[in-house]
Design brief:
three-stranded antiparallel beta sheet, 12 strands, alpha+beta, EC 2.7.11.1
Length: 287
């Protein structure tokens, strides 16, 4: 607490908390049916720069956006520039998407899938609030703006293959799937490596002090619409010791599956018992 004559306040603008809540944050976060609220594309959570200008004509645009970004109310679609054409407001996205039936992979004999889980090692930790919205933006910029996006989830098509990424409700883990028709195994796995690189770069950027466990998703549990997995490091070591015929067991679920399926989307040439080359990233090897 400082008084009006304090040197800390020189050349500073002090905002009244009640005014800030009711006239800025309240309007930005209000539902669309409120008399005065910030209009957005509810499908993508995007708000145009001109809409911000029209909604807050009394506020200097750059300072308004800087305020929103600092409090993680929104993120610029172009991460390199504070002022750009569109902004992602995570709170404007569909919030209650517990039913993923319309985005879940439809398993049949013609589908190949590879997936990963990253979760906090320490149960007291959680992923920073900015991580998943930034991940969504980077996927949208890479693969296209018009994709299903919701709070804690995104599904994007990349030609014949698709990406599904979800954030757990506890904010302690994220799941990443790459799926496509049979014959796209190489592409699915290569794309998963791209997703892992994108994910790990962002984790280093926003969660440098948090330790994570990296897992390979169980394909059989995905059939039951559940995210369970095996330690990537342990699967990698097993493939090194046994080779492409190694199997992994998820004891708590009572299932067994081929290690090469969960690790490499079934691509056996990535595994050789006498000359196994690890495809783990440095972050995954340390986990």
């Amino acid at each position: 607490i400082v008084n009006d004559n304090s040197p800390e306040l020189r050349d500073k603008v002090v905002l009244d908390v009640n005014w800030l809540t009711s006239h800025i944050f309240g309007i930005a976060l209000a539902p669309a049916n409120f008399p005065r609220s910030l209009r957005s594309d509810r499908a993508s959570g995007m708000v145009e720069k001109r809409e911000l200008q029209n909604t807050f004509p009394e506020c200097p645009l750059e300072q308004l956006i800087e305020l929103f970004v600092r409090f993680e109310v929104c993120l610029p679609y172009d991460e390199h520039y504070l002022i750009c054409d569109n902004y992602l407001f995570p709170s404007h996205l569909e919030q209650d998407r517990t039913n993923l039936d319309d985005v879940w992979p439809r398993f049949d004999d013609g589908l190949c899938v590879v997936g990963r889980i990253v979760e906090c090692t320490n149960k007291m930790d959680s992923l920073p609030g900015s991580f998943f919205p930034k991940f969504q933006i980077r996927l949208l910029r890479r693969f296209g703006h018009m994709s299903p996006v919701w709070y804690g989830g995104i599904k994007i098509a990349d030609d014949a293959v698709e990406i599904l990424a979800t954030l757990s409700s506890s904010l302690k883990s994220c799941e990443f799937l790459r799926m496509g028709p049979k014959g796209c195994e190489e592409r699915c796995y290569a794309s998963m490596k791209f997703i892992e690189s994108l994910r790990d770069g962002l984790l280093d950027e926003v969660a440098g002090g948090v330790e994570f466990i990296h897992k390979a998703l169980s394909i059989k549990m995905l059939h039951h619409k559940k995210f369970e997995g095996y330690s990537l490091k342990e699967v990698d070591e097993l493939l090194h010791e046994v080779g492409p015929d190694a199997s992994v067991v998820l004891e708590k679920c009572g299932i067994r599956e081929m290690a090469v399926e969960v690790m490499y989307c079934g691509i056996r040439r990535y595994v050789h018992p006498l000359d196994h080359i690890s495809h783990l990233t440095m972050r995954e090897r340390k986990s």
